[in-house]
Write a structure and sequence with these properties.
Length: 761
Amino acid sequence: MEPVPLQLERWLTKRNARVVLLLIGLVSAAALFTLRQVRFDYDFEKFFPHDDPELDRYLAFRERFGHDNDFLLFGLEPAGGERLFSRAFLLRADSLATKLERLPRVRRVLSPTRLSEPIFTPAGVFERPYLRFDDDTLARIDSAGIRADPRIQEHFFSHDGRVMLVVLTAEPGLSKAKSDSLLAGVRGVMAATGFADTRLAGRLVGQEHYIGTMVKETLFFLCASIALLAVFLWIAFRSLHGVVVPIAVTGTAILWQVALMTALGRPLGILTMLLPTILFVVGMSDTVHLLECYLDEIRKGTPRTRAIAITWRETGLPTFLTAVTSGIGFATLGTASIPPLQEFGLFTAGGVVLAYALAFTLLPALLVLVHPARLLPRSADASPWDRRMPTILRWALRHRRAVLLGAGAVAVMGTIGAARVRVNNYLLEDLPDSDPMKAGFHWFEREFGGVRPFELEIATADSAGSVWELSSLRRIERVQNWIDTAYGVDAIMSPVTVMRSLNKAYNGGDRSFYRLPDDSAECARFAGRAKLIGKDLIGTLVSADGRHARLTGRHVDEGGFVHQGKNARLDSFIASEAGGSLIFHQTGMAWLIDRNNATLSKQMVLSMGLAVLLTALIMLWFFRDWRMVIVALLPNLLPLLFIAGIMGFAGIDLKVSTAIIFSIAFGIAEDDTIHMLAALRHHMRNGLSPLYALKRTCLRTGKAVAVTGLMLLSGFVTLVFSDFASIRYMGTLITLTLAFASVAELLLLPVLVALLLRGKR
């Protein structure tokens, strides 16, 4: 039977190479055609697990009372010498609110200029406006009453009375196109009424900002990664073809994978926007290993097709293992319970497989057609790494004790630092403080006591009970007072605020009666006419049967870690002071984000553990030696412990965007380890001792490891320039992890081989 290289060599003809290029070209043309329909999306509701009972509870709550995040906040601030309670300013504000409400897809607009309160008298019911702005005198008189009325003051005016708030509620579930159309109409109305520079906050404007930034950064990162990789490819191969060929192979894999996502109707999101950069880096690693081996054979004088066949025989199985283990590292993210992480993990794993397939089809086809001299102009020249690698190996073996002590010190410090990492997140943490949108968010927090929604669901335990009963209202009032003072929630609306308003209205508008009625009969009578306060308002606070209610407000975003402590104290207060016939349960979009971040961060760590376990089993099957499993895992686990320690000492919180780093870094870093150990196994099977096999491995495979290490760093270091904090952290931490992993490959791995495989033949 012919040797494997000779069998492979029979297929390496120019005719077959042209056929392969033609087929790949046709598929690539179809992929380019598909890319015309690529979409970007940032819907944070997709980050909620579909099988979470708390999500089901929230969806039922939202169905009953309406959405808690489909709004726009307008912070109206007088300019120049204008006064807030002047007739001219209030007329413009009222005109803005009126025109906004006429826009398509707008449910309602709340403005102090359009609000009134009912007054019940023996002669009938009268509506008294909160603000009369027919002239400046009436406006000043009413402003004094507003400052003494917490219902209006907290909801619509800043603490110092300099800024007024207008709230627009849009139709729920608007698509990206409809949201953009509505925002265009909103900005047109703002310009027409003289409020063009007014600050905006809300999901609609946030979605527009995020998607615009994502599109810009996806193109920037891909171009920057290609440019940096081209520089290192030029340094490694010193030829134009040495740059173009690897980029063509990995670029085709990216094209196919993004086209596949588009064809399946999957948009690029905050996570999948990283897919092109990751695939470019991962695919380049295998391609460079193949090229280094091929060029080594060329330098020996091996004919072109024979050199390709030998390269594919020696590196085929290790490259397949790197594709499998990297794919497993990403695919384990599919065990997460939220679709965006599942899609990111599975599509990235699929892209790794595509890159592997093209490395063994497109790359040999190109090598058959491209003369070796174009890849390495002076074929007789030795690689510059031939002089460096033996020096690095000798240093590591001579200082093996220092290397092991250093690794131990890193492990200890990493463990101490990792213990200080806490799970935490903020609503707009992805944006830098200099970002106009985030600056506007903080401005609303300063002026109006926060814009983070607070939602508390209230239900009667007794099927015959009602939240309008005086005993129930008093329990709600105790909880509401605690939430106001201890939790720090402003602009609270609940059945209690409605009943207080009714009591005031039935007593001629006397502010001293803004409290709960004294007896149950009076309370029941007021509840029967509650819709006079406003049918739409009552429907968003109390269900038609009176058995379900809502306490809503807004507060400052202090981070999920702080909110978790506040929530625990709230639950304790409710259990001890306000239980009985009512059931209180916190819910809402912001609460779900905090809860899911904590849960998913732990899931990411567990998925990384699963990837390590599966990789260990594959290594055990491949090497049939538990010592080689230790050699394979330690140089890749130590960098993860190192980065966890950095996170703890630097105060970087654990969240989904940072927890995912460990799976990505492990999936990428282990590739070079597999190539090193596979080469070591190959040389030992040829009869070399472990130390001599290690020397041959470092001379041949170690060069590729050094080159790919630099390329991996160049691919991820561009992410540190992202405007998204999660992407910036990812770039910084993965770059540090891979840098440490490269050092561990070249220093710790040889020491472990010399220590654990001593005397083995």
